[in-house]
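Posting this for the archive.
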Amino acid sequence: MGEYLSLTFREAVEKDLPFMVEMLADDELGSQREDTSNPLNSAYFSAFKNIVADPNNELIVVEKEGNIIGMLQLTFIPYLTHKGSWRCLVEGVRIHKNFRGDGIGTRVFEWVIQYARGKGVSILQLTSDKQRPDSIRFYEDLGFKSTHEGLKLKLN
């Protein structure tokens, strides 16, 4: 993974889960859907094991001076379209509240773009909840374009 501009990027390990779930829950939307109970809900451990067992998924934590300050999940997807290219889906992006507005998110995405290119990815894609206009603006400022209409069907 490596270091980028004083940030360290590494694959998450199971002991990181409680802190990662706290970051996922630390906003208005996340607080409604995540479970920060102690002990941690076993569903998170199950999801973690499935993610790390899948060679096309990477759960990444971002550290600064040995402390986790961010996280994201990368899913590499082979496609028949675009001449059989690979895409990278970026999800679960969080920067710890104490580090938001410091340019960390921009540095994280610079790393993601470089990392995905190194893996031969031709399209980087993500979704952002429409209730997060600041996040959407951030992604647009990075060059992401809203070229498709995303749809979801909640099954439970």
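The beta strands are 2-4, 7-11, 57-64, 67-78, 86-95, 121-126. The two ends are 35 Å apart (CA to CA).
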